[in-house]
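[agent] plan:
  1. take the single chain provided in the ticket
  2. run structure prediction with default settings
  3. attach structure tokens to the ticket
  4. add a short note for the reviewer (M.T.)
[agent] executing step 1
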Amino acid sequence: MTSPTTAAKYVLATRGPSSVRISPSPTAPGQLQITTTSPQDLFSLPLKDYTTLLLLAHSTSRLLSNSLQVHRVALATTGEPSPSLSLIPLHGLDPSSWFPILTHNDEFISTPAFVDSKGGPKESSATLDAIQGRITAQTGWTPAAMDLTFHGDKADANLFARLVRGEIEQWRVWESAGHVGFLTPFPNSFGAAVVVPRKHLTSDIFAIGEEDFVALVGAAWEVARKLKDALGATHVGMVF
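[agent] step 2 finished; step 3 output follows
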């Protein structure tokens, strides 16, 4: 365990109740950690405080990219009380030597307070229907009211574009004028959901402009709170 004195050496910046530090136990070189003293879980934070924290992550990812020539940064958090956000350089610190690490093993996580980005086995339609029903009872959304508006090329063959347009079977649970939330049919944990914009943005979330980034993470905040209420979760994790 890292002592408080040692941990203080790794702090790069502080902003209000939050601090940015070099992770003392990284899963990848250059990994940073953002912590906050708030006793609330991530998605119980008021939207303003949550957005401020995510914007700190956004600016910190740019710091990683600019200072260490990191090509792409991911975020992972379990969303537990006193939230901690891990910023992980996916391509390491030397983009020239990067290669993809692929997994073909499906994984379903039953361990509480654990999150990862692996895909899971195909869930049955009956189970997805049941989970969808529990969540939409909270969101008030019904499949009959599905909005298929996509702000982009109608011929865009991107998976998320096709989902927004309703061209693929899906278990939508929430939508707004700018975003759509749906259950993934290959969940790695119970009730896993995906939030996507109604326009084609890069999958590199931290590379998105600030306005679109704030809108996207705000939509994730809305959906996560509905998941908590509908499924009785104490907190919700997030990976992107």
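[agent] step 4 note for reviewer: The mean pLDDT is 90.
[agent] ticket updated
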